[in-house]
Amino acid sequence: MGAVVESVSSSAGHTFGKPVREGIRLLAGLGVEGDAHLGVTVRHRSRVAVDPTQPNLRQVHLIHAELLEELAGEGFAVGPGELGENVTTRGIDLLGLGRGAVLCLGPQARVEVTGLRNPCVQIDAFSPGLLKKVVGRGPDGEVVRRAGIMGIVLRGGRVEPGMAIDVLAPRGPHLPLERV
Predict the structure, then answer these.
(1) How many CB atoms lie within 10 A of CB 71?
(2) Are 52 and 42 in contact (CB under 8 A)?
(3) What is the DSSP letter of 98?
(4) Residue 165 and residue 33: Cα distance in Å, rounded?
(5) How far is Cα 1 from Cα 124, in angstroms, rounded to an integer?
(6) Which residues touch 128 (CB under 8 Å, ≥6 apart)?
(7) Local confidence band at 120 (pLDDT 50, 70, 90 cut-offs)
(8) How far apart are CA 100 and CA 115, in angstroms?
(9) Which residue, 49, 80, 131, 134, could crosslink 7 as a Cys pair with Cβ 3.0–4.6 Å?
(10) pLDDT at 158
């Protein structure tokens, strides 16, 4: 079985977690219909405080279900949507994608990968000690972020659990993901 959408979530409010939905609609250039992070410019509160005119590179947040399972094995009960993601995936190495890769979610929706989610201390308010499990240090001392990726909507469409995910690699050299 190939990569699939495992779950979808959205929230109209700036809540930490997002309720699981039967489906969501992605809107080109904006994000998830009805979600608090919908917009051409930044919607994340800390980024708005710095510069509300910045482009919104965080329209859609994706996390791989395998991370949630790994966390469960370490004693953390985290379900789909509870870390604020819009799309929970299965069978795809999200963190290994390059900047500019395009995720084809079902027959219509297209999301361009912009970078890594930069998790904050709110994760520890959700579950103490969880931040250290999703942000750590690699062998060379570099920061390793594992709390999912962010993207912008290139082409809108409905996204539902069970839909296939295909990846279109960007042209040119592989550009590793950085925090956005």
Answers:
(1) 18
(2) yes
(3) P
(4) 20
(5) 34
(6) none
(7) confident
(8) 9
(9) 80
(10) 98
Number of residues that this document lists for the chain? 180
Residues 145, 135 contacting (CB under 8 angstroms): yes
Residue 55 is classified by DSSP as B
CA distance 70 to 58: 24
d(CA 120, CA 109): 28
Which pLDDT band, with edges at 50, 70 and 90, does 44 fall under?
Answer: confident
Contact of 62 with 87, CB cutoff 8 Å: yes
Are 53 and 176 in contact, with CB atoms under 8 Å apart? no
Query: Would the pLDDT of 1 be above 80?
Result: no
Question: How far apart are the C-alpha atoms of 150 and 63, rounded to whole Å?
Answer: 9
Q: Which domains does the chain have, with CATH numbers?
A: 4-168 (2.40.33.20)
